[in-house]
Automatic annotation (TrEMBL):
Source lineage: Eukaryota, Metazoa, Chordata, Craniata, Vertebrata
Top-rank taxon: Eukaryota
GO MF annotation: an example: lipid binding
CDD domains from the UniProt entry: PH1_TECPR1
Region (Disordered): 404-480, 492-511, 1202-1225
InterPro entries: Beta-propeller_rpt_TECPR, Peroxin/Ferlin, PH-like_dom_sf, TECPR1-like_DysF, Tectonin_beta-prop
A Pfam family that the UniProt record links to this protein: Pex24p
A single Gene Ontology CC term: cytoplasmic vesicle
Localisation per UniProt entry: Cytoplasmic vesicle, Autophagosome membrane; Lysosome membrane
Record's protein name: Tectonin beta-propeller repeat-containing protein 1
A single BP term in Gene Ontology: autophagy
Biased composition (Polar residues): 430-446
Quaternary structure annotation from Swiss-Prot or TrEMBL: Interacts with ATG5; the interaction is direct. Interacts with WIPI2. Interacts with the ATG5-ATG12 conjugate, the interaction is however mutually exclusive with ATG16, since it does not interact with ATG12-ATG5-ATG16 complex.
Keyword Metal-binding: no
Amino acid sequence: MPNSVLWAVDLFGRVYTLSTAGQYWELCKDAQLEFKRVSAAMQCCWGIACDNQVYLYMCASDVPIRRREEAYENQRWNPMGGFCEKLLPSDRWSWSDVSGLQHRPLDGVMLPSPHWEWESDWYVDENFGGEPTEKGGWTYAIDFPATYTRDKKWNSCVRRRKWIRYRRYKSRDAWAKIPSKDDPKQLPDPFNDLSVGGWEITEEPIGRLSVWAVSLQGKLWYREDVCHPNPEGSSWSLMDTPGEVAQISCGPHDLLWATLWEGQALVREGINRNNPKGSSWSIVEPPGSENGIMHVSVGVGVVWAVTKDRKVWFRRGVNSHNPCGTSWIEMVGEMLMVNVGLNDQVWGIGCEDRAVYFRQGVTPSELSGKTWKAIVAGRECDRSHSGSSSSLLSAGCFFGDEVKGGGESAPSDTDGSSEVERPELDQPLPSESSDNSRNPDESSASGPGAGRTTEGAVENTCPAEGRGEPGSAKCPNLASSPAELPWTNIDLKEPKKAPGHSAAGFPETTSSQGLLPLGLEESYVLDDHPLWAWVSGGSCAVEAFSVLKWFTVQSGLSPSVQTLSLSLTPAQTAAWRKQIFQQLTERTKRELENFRHYEQAVEQSVWVKTGTLQWWCDWKPHKWVDVRVALEQVTGHDGARDSILFIYYVVHEEEKYIHVFLNEVTVLVPVLNEAKHSFALYTPERTRQRWPVRLAAATEQDMNDWLALLSLSCCESRKVHGRPSPQAIWSITCKGDIFVSEPNPDLEAREHLLPCDQMFWRQMGGHLRVVEANSRGVVWGIGYDHTAWVYTGGYGGGCFQGLASSTSNIYPQSDVKSVYIYENQRWNPVTGYTSRGLPTDRYMWSDATGLQECTKAGTKPPSLQWTWVSDWSVDFSVPGGTDAEGWQYASDFPASYHGYKTMKDFVRRRCWARKCKLVTSGPWLEVAPIALGDVSIIPECPATNRNGHSVALWAVSDKGDVLCRLGVSELNPAGSSWLHVGTDQPFVSVSIGACYQVWAVARDGSAFYRGSVSPSQPAGDCWYHIPSPPKQRLKQVSVGQTSVYTLDENGKSFGGSEGRWNLWYRQGITPSYPQGSSWEHVSNNVRRVSVGPLDQGTCGIAKGSRPATHRAPAGSTCPTMCAECPWGLWISSVTAAMAGRFSRSVFQVWVIADKVQGSHSLSRGTVCHRTGVQPHEPKGQGWDYGIGGGWDHISIRANATRTTWSTSREQEPSAPQETHGPVCC
């Protein structure tokens, strides 16, 4: 569950926040203003102060809000003086925007408000189409407007260059007043209500928000252009309404409801990506004719309302297709207001006690929830009273009953931390009132006694009906017997047209303290229970069934516990534990001595587990066959265990079997299957064949049990236990499963190379898309939803929970991904584009390739572990762009698609996306709050001495910001904070080498090198633009000790032959020139590349010599190349490698190949190791194929296990390579 916050306003106008991981309300840092109400979204909150002005509170973040301002300088060629600023009368402005229609001089570009500041002065952008331009940044064309090029030609009559300047939003963690475009000092109309939503209409990195406001005159206003790069928006637009609006609520997607002064509700229809304001209004009548709607709140697919008689109502049948819903359902309880937050969770303000209530039991299948529960968290400012309060409570155990509230019993040890909903102060248990006889069903369903957790602690599941005076508050709904079970049914009832009985009310609460010590000041008692006026959960993400700390009374330790703490000091406790441990150890030794002369009773034991599974037959008819399986495990007298798996099947009424020795199994991997719970067993022979043993279970639990048992047996056979070593190799399948393999010194040896197909992989708990590690044990991962995770040091989790898992460092983990299908159409001369295609066309609803039919109704989540969390929606972020409706056009299937229609476009397609969610567990903790797209950790080799230095970690956010993590170490792998590194454009990939050389790839496919990065200057100073390979767009980069490898995304191999994703090597990298000289093609058909720390390159140093002087690289901070600087370490490692102290094959280049042909079948996504890579041959000689297919990511950067090399064997001939040439399709 992410660490999000709940916003609230008390009666004095002070704004507080309550974290989902905290227990106290924290006062907003900027507390000088008094507010009426607030509306929160992720990372921001909008509010209306008592002066009726609108304010914005942007939460502080390590990533700044930056916006780029652009201006173009235009010039025309003159025969007399060459290019000059004198243009023709018909030309554009000499200083203009990109279109040339708007005059835009550099000194005329102003800051939009006082809350912005300039980062730097204007400078020329020398990047054009992913390639650097000539000095000056000029691009040339024949005329305005035309196609511009980098090179100047004989007919280039005009030229232009782009000037850039960034502005930064500086008002963070403070309330910033929103100015008006017409008059910065005044709003168009004083406001009394506002609502923020619409962030799910457009995906990141746009981050658009819909801000709606209601004025005192009943007018409705919309804030234009509110998005992540422009949090303030630009101006207010007046919206037409059929009546005077009193209050408004905007959901995260396309729901927008408003209330009229007459008591009716307005529903906005037609809200979508292209029209966030909507198109029309619909009127919804209130539940009853006498009491109109006073307040309304909407979520993704729910609508809650409060009528003028304080009753709470739930709207049935609301969705995107029917925003008006069908009918009202009355809920038990009386509220002043309600608010729907993330995940459709609901909060409310009590009518009588003005406490904040949380709706428990809200799930996707039960949107109305089950019961209200009061939040009794204290305020941060009240912590000063906790010391005196706790001391008085401690004194209570010595004074006896005279310090207890009247009628209450002494609290037990568990009372101090018991969950309560409405803590009562010195009030005896009341008897039933006459109000209870009016509606006995309602009172029993909402009675606080039904939620009793421990004796003496009463939990109220909803506000009670009685409205007593302070000091005599009644609780008429209290159950008569403490043994009654709590009610769990939904407290719903159909609305009544005639005036009915009032719903349950809220008994007043005067204190949340169970004890009233003598001498306590009355002023402190009165201020102990805050009174709230407004609550907003738009930035509070509470998962269903999550455990919160909001409902625990923080009253210090109970008297009995405090008494115990006074009698035993920590030193006495430690001595007592040590004495007990010594006694148990001596007793064990004595008992073992008595039986030492006896012989071993049992020399070996046999353990067998049987079951029924399905097995995929390897031969015709190639189908699933019901089989019996038996796992036989033999334990010898020395404790060694060996296991065999038998699979019994029937062929022509004859029973046969196949067997697999588990000590030969290299990996057990779950298989991505929509219909079956299946997994595969690989051995070295079956890895070479690309033909594993596939088994399927009837249920998910059966598959998890067999996976855990078989995995445990495999680990016991190979004596692999516990957490992975710091130098382990990490990989991830396309399903998101995480695997590790312990390194072997022969894995990188030149002679007697260990084949990759003999590596043993074991599964770790969790679910990730990307994982990176280094040899100091720091491991980071990124999920499909761009959430960053850090490894905690445990092992197991998920399906291995309990049997083959650590008992600590296992935490819940969730992930969200999207499933995509395509709607295809062909143009018809009569009807236009239609779903009827030619007989040779692809399916009209298909996957991206068009080979498989995929309809909305028939498409299921990737596996049975995933569940849908959204409906189908058009994806506008596909490569190539789309039109306003999401269509892409082309001449035929398949072809190059573009986002606009031409005369030659006869087909079109549209991408639909739907989100699904997986919930699991593993040794991972979330690193909030910035979402990441890529991460890289510095690799380290044994020769590197980094004592005292933190681990360098770089990352790219999902918006393209480059970040450097500070404070990362073995003891604190999560680090402390992010340091933003400025860029001129969004980036997609970053990698840091062992010598602090940082390379990155921009979104346009260009490469960059970061200069002057060192432990003392972790962010470096500037970027150097590196030209990409000719006509190639890069997508990923990986840097080892000295070498740099990249991947492109063009889809065709170098040289014109068909292939995908070319692998490139950067030549000419030396300490004096770290940017290198040129790119050299290595191979095609590569999905992912990972370069390890054991790759020392040459820099022109003579063998066995130490360089006396070297020119410092561009941006280097150490011109003398001392042994402590990164480049000095590089030269030291190179000198050691050239001197022959290590293996001659010291390069580590591992990839995920797209296609690998085995002896039996073709696999996609195969782990491959580049062989023959050495300093004088960095491209290598061949590939060693490992486990696959279905693999999507690998990280070799933690493997610093090196094979020593004897100098006497230096002249021996090299071993032949297994496979020559590049990987081909």
